[in-house]
Amino acid sequence: MSDTQSDKLVNRYFGFRLLVTPWAIKAIYVIGIVAILINGWNVYQVSQKSWFVGTSFALECQLKGIAIMVLGNLIWRLACETWIVLFSICDSLLVIRSQNRREPAGEEINTAE
Predict the structure, then answer these.
(1) Whole-model pTM?
(2) Within 13 Å and on the Cβ side, how many CA atoms surround 78?
């Protein structure tokens, strides 16, 4: 990368025009999936303890474990997608702002094509 490109990157980063949060959200999403699956599996495994087998508590733990693994991941996915959409909107607004700065003053943008 040349000096001017690295300078632009640094300026964009420290000017908050380069957003790193969408990448971070994707990494946190994967970590969250693993944590939710481990948690759900641990709750499910409680039902396999010898003193709980055949009781209503065992069935309850099995259902809760499955619900945590399925619904937990679904809710986690929706939360992460919501954050990514919000940051994508911010990226789009930054692009629109930079395009508007390039337009000469007084000229209208033709959108009816």
Answers:
(1) 0.66
(2) 5
